[in-house]
Please model this.
Amino acid sequence: MQSKESIALYFKEGTSDKVYECSIDAEAGGFVVNFAFGRRGSVLKEGTKTPSPVSFDEAKKVYNKVVGEKMAKGYSTTEP
Model:
């Protein structure tokens, strides 16, 4: 599966050391927004924000919203 756009976000505070990955992937003639999260170094839990393929513009809106929410919670693009 070819990813059109992706980001890895990191959060470290006290004993918390988390990673959140988000990507826009082409699927069945449209695009889906997938994510994975968990403690760094462990197996990440995976899911999707779009249960069925949507247009790229719609996927980009969902992707931007998810990334914005995580960054507002203290996640950043630089590894601690």
Summary: Strands lie at 3-13, 16-27, 30-39, 45-48. The chain has one helix and four strands. The chain has a mean pLDDT of 95. The two ends are 29 Å apart (CA to CA).
